[in-house]
Specification:
The protein has about 450 residues and is α+β, with helices and mostly antiparallel strands. About 25% of the residues lie in helices and about 40% in strands.
Length: about 450
């Protein structure tokens, strides 16, 4: 059963493991994946086909004599897979079975060539996962090749031995294929499992309609739901579903994954609601990390110098009130942050006194990449950071002077914090042990495409 499951897991590569609507993801598994599965699936299929054969009743003597029959070896020199338009996947496997018949007089060894044909339908399951079912399966046998023991076996008995073996294999080989499918469906169920995004957030994928199957690919639409503290993140209703155009990505890739604007909006809304982008930048006197103190600020804001004649540490509280906005244009992805930065000074009684607060607008260049099953990002500042005074308890403030003085003090830590979060990544649709390999990421107007190979890690 374990051997059958291993091939079943490999056959999962044939199925659209992902897709999209709100937030949208579409995955197409192209014909290139069939060659990988065909080659990788030969050994597991050989093991799965090594079934048990019941004893043969030898009628050559006066008394029926049960004779043990054993499959010594199974070789699958050819495994071919193809998509069936509007249906699923067809499998053709050529196999050579080596048998040993343990006769008392002389063991008989023979090779029986066979061709196994099976059609598997791919549909949408009730729990939002792909479901595979074998609709037809049969085996064709060629004439057996006797390796040894021919001279001690009469032609009639040899015919009976072959008939016995063929009758057993016709039932058992198709049963093995059905067992593979059952194991495959269990494996595909891992698609809908919750995958962590952060300490208190998760993402879950599930199919929203039946797969689209052509002679060139299988494509599924899958919904992505992000959760914060067990509650789903809900975007405003958008009646326009995400449709992945034809002929995008790299020609010949195993998988083409389309990620809509909605998925990015939902992920950024999750970060904002979780407060993940908020941070405190604590100041210390004579600190190289944060050179700000009331004495330094007092040089450009006289009221600070008046209120704090002695140097005191300054603390910056960065809070993200609005949701970050990702913009996807052809070959260009950007991110817009609008944090509020509150500047506080530590008083002599260890209390904090609010000096002023700034509205900040940061436009960032966003670079996307894929590692195993995660979409990751890294940002850098694009253009000038804009500052405006939101409130002040220290009179008039020259924002140009303040920005020159303290810009890097909050910009660099905020950027490092954001990149650390984006570097953790968000799980793409996947099943257990299946990874994206050598991925390429392309940014289009309103969506992102990932062209990738696939690798099953046993």
């Amino acid at each position: 059963m374990a051997q059958a499951c291993r091939l079943g897991l490999l056959l999962a590569l044939l199925l659209p493991v992902v897709g999209a609507s709100r937030p949208g993801t579409v995955v197409r598994l192209n014909k290139a994946v069939l060659s990988y599965v065909s080659e990788a699936g030969k050994v597991p299929l050989q093991r799965a086909l090594q079934v048990t054969v019941p004893h043969f009743l030898d009628r050559s003597g006066e008394v029926l004599w049960p004779t043990r029959v054993q499959i010594l070896n199974v070789q699958v020199p050819r495994l071919h897979l193809k998509f069936i338009d509007g249906f699923g996947v067809r499998m053709l496997a050529a196999a050579n079975f080596t048998f040993k018949v343990f006769r008392a007089s002389e063991p008989l060894e023979l090779i029986l060539p066979a061709v196994l044909l099976a059609d598997a339908r791919v549909a949408q399951g009730s729990i939002g996962t792909p479901v595979v079912s074998v609709s037809s399966c049969f085996t064709l046998f060629n004439k057996a090749i006797v390796l040894s023991g021919r001279h001690s076996v009469g032609p009639a008995l040899l015919v009976l031995v072959q008939q016995h073996i063929k009758a057993v294999l016709r039932n058992k080989l198709c049963l093995s294929v059905s067992n593979l499918v059952q194991g495959l469906n269990v494996h595909l169920g891992t698609l809908i499992g919750l995958k962590p995004v952060g300490p208190e957030s998760q993402i879950r994928y599930f199919m929203i309609n039946a797969p689209n199957i052509t002679k060139d690919h299988i494509s599924l639409d899958i919904n992505a739901v992000l959760f914060l503290l067990g509650k789903p993140i809900v975007l405003p209703v958008n009646a326009t579903p995400f449709m992945l155009p034809e002929h995008v990505g790299t020609s010949g890739a195993m998988a083409t994954v389309g990620l809509s604007q909605d998925l990015f909006d939902s992920a950024l809304l999750l970060l904002q609601k979780a407060g993940a982008l908020n941070l405190d930048i604590t100041g210390q006197l004579k600190s190289h990390d944060n050179p700000l103190n009331t004495s330094v600020l007092g040089h450009v804001i006289p009221e600070v110098a008046r209120q704090f004649p002695e140097p005191m540490p300054v603390v910056l509280k960065v809070r993200l009130g609005g949701t970050p906005v990702a913009t996807l244009h052809t070959n260009n992805a950007t991110l817009r942050l609008q944090p509020l930065v509150e500047v506080l000074a530590s008083a002599s009684n260890s209390a904090f006194h609010s000096l002023f607060s700034l509205n900040v607008v940061m436009n960032l260049n966003l670079q996307l990449s894929v590692s195993k099953v995660k979409l990751q990002g890294i940002t850098s500042v694009l253009g000038e950071v804009q500052l405006t005074v939101a409130s002040s308890n220290v009179g008039l403030i020259d924002t140009d002077q303040v920005h020159a003085l303290m810009g890097n003090v909050f910009e660099n830590p905020l950027l490092d914090h954001l990149n650390a979060l984006l570097g953790m990544g968000i799980a793409l649709p996947n099943v257990v042990n299946l990874h994206y390999v050598t991925p390429e990421v392309f940014v289009h107007e309103g969506y992102v495409v990932i062209s990738s190979g696939l690798f099953y890690q046993n």
